[in-house]
Amino acid sequence: MTTKEILESERFKELLRAEVKNALANIKSRRSPIDALKEKGLLSVEKLKDEFLKILTRESSLTSSQRQQVMDLVAPVWKRSFSELTTENKSEEKEIRK
Predict the structure, then answer these.
(1) Which of 34, 40, 50, 61 is most buried when burial is the number of CB atoms within 10 A of its CB?
(2) Distance (Å) of CA 92 to CA 8, 48, 78, 85, 95
(3) Torsions phi, psi for 41 (to 5 deg)
């Protein structure tokens, strides 16, 4: 599976929505990088996904703390999606071989 395929998967999008919702629920009274991302309108799944790709290719114009916040949101979701999707694909391959 390629990174792009994982980022386009419904499972990734579902997990990322949950991660954003959780991050917003845990905001303290002090201003944080997630507040800046929220103001810039970057907390949608599509925008986070695009910004994640920009960070990976070093094309992002966000500040260091904002980039770190995007990575903190997206990277664990990407890793979990990758793990689930590759496990799922291996199971399908085994069934086909039988």
Answers:
(1) 34
(2) 20, 30, 21, 11, 5
(3) 75, 30
